[in-house]
UniProtKB/TrEMBL annotation:
This is glycogen phosphorylase. It comes from Streptomyces carpinensis. Its cofactor is pyridoxal 5'-phosphate. Pfam families: DUF3417 (PF11897), Phosphorylase (PF00343). Transmembrane segments: none annotated. Belongs to the glycogen phosphorylase family. NCBIfam families: more_P_ylases. SUPFAM superfamilies: UDP-Glycosyltransferase/glycogen phosphorylase (SSF53756).
Length: 883
């Protein structure tokens, strides 16, 4: 019989065991080995069956067993130590508290998904895992973040396979009362709520759940409340589910409702109000509109002044290297959900629509672009690797017309991973034996070292024994999961005896696990199946491959890729050497990162924004075999692994390109990777392989830490944003908005009328008339006559721009030098600017001048997207000076 109602009965812990509840509700246990060991000791079998979830564990332990533990002095001593350690971790000073450079009082960090632990399944892939690692690293460093997301009733989907290898999705119901979260309550004990106005007088209500991530509160909004109609209750049903309106409502709740949740949390707890708001991708972009409305309603500002104040304290991170990956909504749909009959009635709908308008060439005027809005509402923006920063500047350069892509104000902070979450306990113990547990923990979490030189002192045999132990654990885990997967596919026990022979703990093991969009090329390894079979079955140097990944439920192309891989892996000839494991998630990922020898990544370059899975593998001594994309393009060295040659930039069709790059992959595996693994030195160890593992840990390990990443965010983005926020009080915001309006109106009158050099260079007799020569180290005097219209010298900066030039006379690697006005304007109202130009490089060299808006409160000269350059008849123009 089916129950008509479901609810959770929570255990009542004996008084001596009450600290267990505090430990279970703070997700620090997910990366703190001592706390996990404590929970495991409560009941090892139930701990395993609960999936390592303390909340589920405590809900399943018998009262008699709890009473027995309450009298166990040894257990109580361990419990007291763990509780004291947590309190010290949460309340003590850390890296952030030792800084004195005007850091923000708090930062609100918004993301549509957070991957904290498998016990809180609110993530789909890399974006969520990155967000979770960001919170954990911020906690370790003492950065006062408030995380903001949604609590999805079904999370993402669980994946199984049909008998013929087709992905099937399942959506288990998640009961918040069985998750490691608590409901935020008002002072009178009633549940805290936020509400959004919907068209036709309806409303969307949401309650607020809090997941405590070490020192960091993560606020999660849940619309499944009785006050809502059925449709509104389903807004937070699934991560990345539903149609356009469903997604729009999710993103309005995340952005607008999220700001209201932050205000409620700070009011109820006394937490400092955030000075900086950071939106992780464009999904939460509406947060800027809510903050504008706050300033208009309660701060007495008009829209333009409020926009400037909001921009100053906002950071936007883009993770998308292709326009197709950005959320875009029909403008009419957006318009229907804002204005007098819906949300934010005090803001003109046209002003809202203008923020998301694609004003660049090729843009679609009928669509509302969330990334474009995110960039317009944030004074600071970044990509997630150096290469992705360049790609983003190219992709969004149309928003800053007249500027070279290199000058587009989008920087980059390369992602990192939270080592305490992803490093195997065995790796941690090896480090602790070398330098002590506390120093090892500090090194893994802080991100303050450039090198881990102590790795050099670990004996070769210890490194190799560690790698074999982790590989053996992976083999056991793969067999267990593969057996369960085949049972789900309908196989009987009698059919599955072969699984006992799947994988070999002494064979080179390659991992490939990630989401399955087409650009990640799950099946590139299958381009030449005979050659792959030869590699898998090589009599002396075999390889084995473990593959996992999920396709989006609506992506039949991705599902076909999975089916193709599964059918190959089902072949009795190779099924002991290659496996596909369904239901990829955090728990599985940790085992893969620990046990693989090589991590494979072969996306279409440059479509991988960063890709952090290889970072997690590297922290466990796994070598990377990857296309030079994302973070690998930035930090690759032959010491750390291998770079797969790419055919990008060549006029090949996609099929030919895949053939070329697959052949390069096979060559690397056959000629370099496998021989290096199986080659033995005098002591019977693979000396050169072990040295690569050692170099990976020593040099690459410190780079890939989330602690390093969060430090960069604090220093390069959060702190400048906090300073800008403080500088943009009401009066300054009004001043800046009025100044921008005046400059925009007057800019058509700004001109470069004449440009000349005060010390002419000698003409080269053999060169074209426009070409001249000069000696290295000499200095030219530039003199430029400009028209500023109604603007004055305080409103602009006139710059000389110089550098090497390419064959089309485009300046590369440019240097800018401000020129100074010489006296008052002439009778025609023109100003003369002068300054020196030092010739500091040999080779083809050129210069030009330009005029930019200038104000003390601008973050960059390109911020307004306004620039004036010489016309064709402005004098000498940009002559090539050195050949």
């Amino acid at each position: 019989m089916k129950a008509i109602r479901r609810f959770t009965v929570r255990p009542v812990l004996p008084e001596p065991l009450r600290p267990l509840s505090e430990l279970a509700r703070n997700l620090r246990w997910s990366w703190h080995a001592e706390t996990r060991d404590l929970f495991q000791s409560v009941d090892p079998e139930r701990w395993a069956s609960s999936g390592g979830d303390p909340v589920r564990l405590l809900g399943s332990v018998r009262p008699a067993q709890l009473a027995e533990l309450a009298g166990d002095r040894r257990f109580l001593r361990r419990l007291t130590a763990a509780a004291d350690d947590l309190r010290d971790y949460v309340d003590g000073d850390r890296w952030y508290q030792g800084r004195t450079d005007g850091l923000p009082a708090a930062v609100a960090y918004f993301s549509p998904e957070f991957g904290i632990t498998a016990a809180l399944p609110q993530y789909s892939g890399g974006l969520g895992i990155l967000a979770g690692d960001h919170l954990k690293a911020a906690s370790d460093l003492g950065v006062p973040l408030i995380g903001v997301g949604l609590l999805y009733r079904h999370g993402y989907f669980r994946q199984t396979l049909s008998r013929d290898g087709w992905q099937q999705e399942h959506y288990p119901v998640l009961d918040p009362y069985e998750l490691p979260v608590t409901q935020l309550r008002e002072h009178d004990g009633s549940p805290a709520r936020v509400s959004l106005a919907l068209p036709r007088g309806r409303a969307l209500h949401a309650r607020i759940w809090v997941a405590q991530v070490g020192r960091i509160p993560l606020l999660m909004l849940d619309s499944d409340v009785e006050e809502n109609d059925l449709g509104e209750r389903g807004v937070t049903d699934r991560l990345y589910g539903g149609g356009s309106e469903h997604r729009l409502l999710q993103e309005m709740l995340l952005g607008i409702g999220g700001v209201r949740a932050v205000r409620t949390y700070c009011r109820l707890t006394g937490h400092p109000e955030p000075e900086v708001f950071h939106t992780n991708e464009g999904h939460a972009g509406f947060l800027g509109l809510e903050r504008i409305a706050e300033l208009c309603d309660g701060g007495g500002l008009d829209f333009d002044a409020a926009l400037e104040a909001v921009r100053a304290g906002t950071v936007f991170t883009t993770h998308t290297p292709v326009p197709a990956g950005i959320d875009r909504f029909d403008r009419e749909l957006v318009a229907r959900h804002f204005g007098t009959d819906a949300e934010l009635p005090g803001i003109d709908v046209e002003r809202i629509l203008q923020l998301g308008r694609e004003t660049y060439p090729g843009g679609e005027p009928s669509l509302f672009n969330m990334a474009v809005m995110g960039l317009r509402l944030a004074q600071r923006a970044n990509g997630v690797s150096l290469l992705h920063g360049r790609v983003s500047r190219e992709m969004f350069s149309g928003l800053w017309p007249g500027f070279d892509p290199d000058e587009v104000p989008i920087t980059s902070v390369t992602n990192g991973v939270h080592a305490p979450t992803w490093v195997a306990p065995e790796v941690f113990r090896l480090g602790a034996r070398q330098i002590g547990a506390q120093r090892t923990e500090d090194a893994l979490s802080g991100g303050g070292s450039d090198r881990w030189d102590s790795v050099a002192d670990i004996p070769d045999e210890d490194i190799w024994e560690l790698r074999r132990e982790l590989r053996e654990q992976l083999v056991t885990e793969v067999r267990r999961r593969l057996w369960a997967a085949w049972r789900q596919r309908g196989a009987g026990t009698a059919e599955l005896g072969w699984i006992d022979g799947v994988l070999d703990p002494d064979v080179l093991t390659i991992g490939f696990a990630r989401r399955v969009p087409s650009y990640k090329r799950l099946t590139l390894m299958l381009r030449d199946r005979d050659r792959l079979m030869d590699l898998l079955l090589h009599p002396e140097r075999p390889i084995q491959i473990v593959v996992a990944g999920k396709a989006h439920p609506a992506d039949d192309g991705g599902k076909r890729l999975i089916q193709e891989l599964v059918r190959f892996a089902d072949d009795p000839r190779v099924r002991h050497r290659i496996v596909f494991l369904p239901d990829y998630g955090m728990a599985m990922a940790q085992k893969l990162y620990h046990g693989c020898d090589v991590w494979l990544n072969n996306p279409l370059r440059p479509l991988e924004a960063c890709g952090t899975s290889g970072m997690k593998a590297a922290l466990n001594g796994c070598l990377n075999l990857s296309v030079l994309d994302g973070w690998w393009d930035e930090w690759y060295q032959p010491d750390f692994g291998w770079a797969i040659p790419t055919a990008d930039g060549v006029g090949y069709d996609s099929e030919h390109r895949d053939d070329i790059e697959a052949a390069a992959l096979y060559d690397l595996l056959e000629q370099r990777v496998a021989p290096r693994f199986y080659e033995r030195g005098r002591a019977g160890l693979p000396d050169r392989w072990i040295e690569m593992v050692r170099r990976t840990l020593t040099l690459l390990g410190p780079k890939v830490l989330a602690g390093r990443m969060v430090r960069e965010y604090v220093d390069r983005l959060y702190t400048p944003a906090a300073h800008a926020h403080r500088a943009l009080g009401p009066d300054a915001a009004r001043e800046l908005a009025a100044w921008k309006a005046r400059v925009r109106a007057a800019w058509p009158e700004v001109t470069v009328d004449h440009l000349e050099t005060s010390s002419p260079v000698a003409e080269r007799t053999e060169a074209p008339p426009s070409t001249a020569t000069a000696e290295l180290g000499s200095t030219l005097g530039l003199r430029v006559r400009v028209g500023l219209g109604s603007l004055g010298p305080d409103d602009v900066e006139v710059q000389a721009v110089s550098g090497r030039v390419d064959e089309e006379d485009h300046i590369t690697d440019a240097t800018t030098v401000p020129l100074k006005p010489n006296g008052a304007p002439d009778a025609d109202g023109r100003w003369v600017y002068e300054g020196p130009l030092s010739l500091d490089r040999t080779g083809p060299y050129g210069y030009t001048v330009r005029i930019l808006p200038s104000h003390r409160l601008l973050a960059s000269g390109a911020e307004m997207g306004l620039v004036t350059v010489p016309s064709e008849d402005s004098g000498e123009g940009a002559g090539v000076l050195l050949r």
